[in-house]
Design brief:
Elements: E1 2-3, H1 6-9, E2 21-23, H2 35-57, E3 69-73, E4 82-86, H3 96-108, E5 112-118, H4 127-146, E6 150-155, H5 158-168, E7 173-177, H6 182-194, E8 199-202, H7 210-213, H8 221-235, H9 257-263, H10 280-294, H11 298-301, H12 314-318, H13 324-331, H14 339-361, H15 373-381, H16 393-397, H17 404-416, H18 421-433, H19 438-452, H20 459-470, H21 491-497, H22 500-512
Parallel strand pairs: 1-2, 4-5, 4-7, 5-6, 7-8
Antiparallel strand pairs: 3-8
Helix pairs in contact: 5-6, 8-14, 14-20, 17-22, 18-19, 18-20, 19-20
The structure holds flavin-adenine dinucleotide (FAD).
């Protein structure tokens, strides 16, 4: 790879079979004010292009980008199985954490085990979400067994179960996936202090690893977008396939799914949603249908909850049953100028990865202190404003407000397990308007979201609620009662955007069935 002047000025490059003149020589800026800037820009471009070319030309299985991996703990080098403790990326295909663990196992000539830890009462999840996850894990267990990879499910607190498992089974190396949420970080910290083997973490949920996209809390989409876009050519790489491992005598995955279901201490009245079939296979089917039938109109119809224009992939993305990177790779073949593709990728990549950035770098991602200073100040100034309506959590939960549109959105979430994206904003903003304080609004919003949404307990959820109630990633708007400078939404605004009555009728019909 050479600069644009090299063909003329350096005609011979020893050892090179072929030349690619791909960047402009920044010489033209020598002696000008822009010299430093242009040289720096060109260095970065050359670096990115070289990494890209090496990735494309290397068939080596180990060619995964090592920047996706972080060492959390040094450890003793010894023999014994390699474990991938799978947390939020519950899939076999297109999973960098599994690929890395597999690679280490091959290199060490050791057995690979995938371990999942089931907590029987996790962050307000109900039977609906556990069912979605466990059925996905059933499918995963079959896929792993076809690859001769043992799969074990532990029950309990991972701070205890994982170290116990490691000691009991003489594990030599531990890999896990990345999750920015407080609870998962705490597990890893405690685990690190209890084990003496190496522990590595792989970001296989984001395309650009969270720690590479940005080293700090980003202000808004416009600040993270250029950073992500610049790095996409480096990280949006094809996934290698995992091959069947040598069969192991000790292969032994005995999972009692009935016992796992029996162990759950959750609200079983929240029923499963038949429309959403769990698992990676179903995720791929939904993706295919979305691309073939709905993607075309995504940019024009995505804010109309009467149109079936969204992908419906969020439950699958949340549980990691499908990889965002593999979706983006499929869409790579589409025209860059296609507005629908661009607007879908904006949500799938920029907005989603911005949420991980928010939860990763803001320890207060789920409380008032996590809002921007301007938003806290403004909400504080409006604490004593008179609220026209005030509802209890029970009234919200049973959709008993004066507003049929809000009630319809609540019904959609309770019945379908997935409220339309546009309605989520309206729904959360009205909770701010009809509760005593922003703290209470956030608490109610998180409780309801995480109890009923199939995609709940996700960085996207905490960020979406912080955006709606606390102006996170947004700007200050015209001041008004209760909201202060937080962006306002109202019934009439919705009426101008879509047929409100038709949405209400549809949801109410659903609740009568
Ligand atoms: C108050 C509120 C609560 C929310 N709660 C959740 C939640 O619990 N879980 C969740 O995954 N999303 C949440 N979102 C974000 C967004 O509404 C959903 O991701 C989207 O509606 C899911 O439907 P879809 O997959 O059909 O979306 P599509 O429009 O098809 O988008 C595809 C994917 O892009 C990502 N995405 C889309 N919109 C956003 C967004 N605004 N922010 C970040 N990523 C986005 C999601 O991963 C989504 O699956 C919330 C938003 C708000 C305002």
């Amino acid at each position: 790879m050479t600069c644009s002047h090299a063909d003329e000025n350096c005609p011979i490059v020893n050892g090179a079979e072929i030349r690619f003149p791909i960047w402009h020589d920044p010489k033209e800026f020598d002696g000008t004010e822009l010299e430093d800037l242009k040289y720096k820009e060109r260095f970065e471009q050359i670096g990115i292009e070289m990494i890209y070319v090496f990735k494309q030309t290397s068939n080596n299985y180990k060619s995964m980008n090592l920047d996706r991996i972080r060492k959390l703990k040094e450890g003793k080098i010894r023999t014994g199985p390699v474990v991938y403790w799978m947390q939020r990326d519950q899939r076999v295909d297109d999973n960098w954490a599994l690929i890395y663990a597999y690679n280490v196992a091959l290199e060490k000539n050791e057995k690979l085990i995938v371990v999942f830890n089931l907590i029987n009462n996790f962050l307000g999840a109900s039977y609906r979400q556990y069912h979605f996850m466990l059925e996905g894990l059933k499918e995963l267990s079959e896929e792993l067994s076809k690859l001769n990879i043992q799969f074990d499910i532990l029950i309990g607190n991972p701070k205890e179960t994982i170290p116990e498992y490691i000691f009991k089974n003489k594990i030599s190396f531990l890999v896990t996936d990345f999750n920015p949420l407080r609870i998962a970080r705490e597990w890893k910290e405690i685990l690190s202090s209890k084990i003496d083997i190496p522990l590595y973490e792989v970001d296989t949920h984001n395309i650009v690893p969270v720690w590479k996209a940005s080293e700090k809390l980003e202000y808004a989409a416009y600040t993270i977008r250029p950073k992500i876009k610049k790095l996409l050519p480096v990280y949006l790489e094809e996934f290698p396939k995992i091959k069947k491992m040598k069969s192991s005598e000790t292969f032994n995955s005995n999972i009692s799914w009935d016992d796992l279901y029996g162990s759950l201490k959750v609200d079983r009245s929240i029923k499963i949603v038949k429309e959403f079939i769990p698992g990676s296979k179903a995720a791929r089917t939904i993706l295919k249908a979305f691309i073939e039938k709905r993607l075309e109109n995504y940019s024009i119809d995505r804010n109309d909850p009467n149109k079936n224009a969204l992908s419906n992939l969020s439950p699958y993305l949340h549980f990691g049953q499908i990889s965002a990177q593999s979706i983006a790779l499929v869409l790579n073949d589409f025209e860059e100028t296609d507005e629908s593709v661009a607007s879908f990728l904006e949500e799938l990549i920029v907005r989603r990865e911005l949420s991980d950035n928010f939860c990763n770098y803001n320890p207060n991602y789920d409380n008032f202190n996590g809002f921007h200073a301007w938003a806290q100040k403004s909400l504080n100034e409006h604490r004593s404003d008179k609220r026209e309506y005030l509802y209890s959590l029970e009234e919200f939960e049973s959709a008993k407000t004066h507003d049929p549109l809000w009630n319809a959105a609540q019904v959609e979430m309770v019945e379908k397990g997935k409220m339309h994206g546009y309605m989520r904003m309206y729904w959360a903003k009205k909770i701010l308007e009809w509760t005593d304080s922003p703290e209470q609004a956030l608490e109610y919003g998180i409780y309801l979201n995480d109890k009923y949404e199939l995609d709940g307990r996700d960085p996207n959820g905490y960020t979406g609620l912080a955006w709606s109630i606390g102006g996170v990633h947004d700007r200050a708007w015209t001041e008004r009662p209760v909201f202060g400078k937080i962006r306002y939404m109202n019934f009439n605004g919705c009426k101008r955007k879509f047929d409100v009555q038709s949405y209400i009728n549809r949801q109410l019909r659903k609740s009568l069935l």
